[in-house]
Amino acid sequence: MRSQRLPAVLAVLYLLFTEGYAATAGPTQIRPELCSEAIRLAHILHRLLPDEAETTALLALMLLTRRPPPRPHHSRRPAGHARGPGPHPVGPTADRRRSPTGHHRPAH
């Protein structure tokens, strides 16, 4: 019986999430409360059915596409932030050390 109802439950959760992600009506395009509720319910369903691949996939899809992302992806950060602070900052090509030992510097 569960296997017959699961696709319908997943479809409803997906519809709830997509309505929150891109609302079809109302004053705002995004309705975060609907996204959050769909994600909350998907978490519960995933805890109840951890071996169901479709449940895991739906939860992953929701978490990856929600707005705003939980933290900036490296590809969305300004240049120089991908590596973080350290001995190898991103800079103009002329200022970079060329040799593995770092002793050679281009002439200015």
Task: Describe it.
It is a single chain. The protein is mainly α and 108 residues long. It has a domain at 2-70. Helix content is 46%, strand content 0%. The protein contains 3 helices and no strands. The protein has helices at residues 2-21, 32-48, 53-65. Helix 1 (2-21) packs antiparallel against helix 2 and helix 2 packs antiparallel against helix 3 (53-65). The model has no long low-confidence stretch (mean pLDDT 78).
In helices, the fraction of residues equals: 40-55%
Q: Could you tell me the number of beta strands?
A: 0
Number of helices: 3
Helix-strand pattern, N to C? HHH
Could you report the average pLDDT, rounded to the nearest whole number?
Answer: 78
Task: Write a compact overview of the structure shown.
The protein is mainly alpha-helical and 108 residues long. The protein contains 3 helices and no strands.
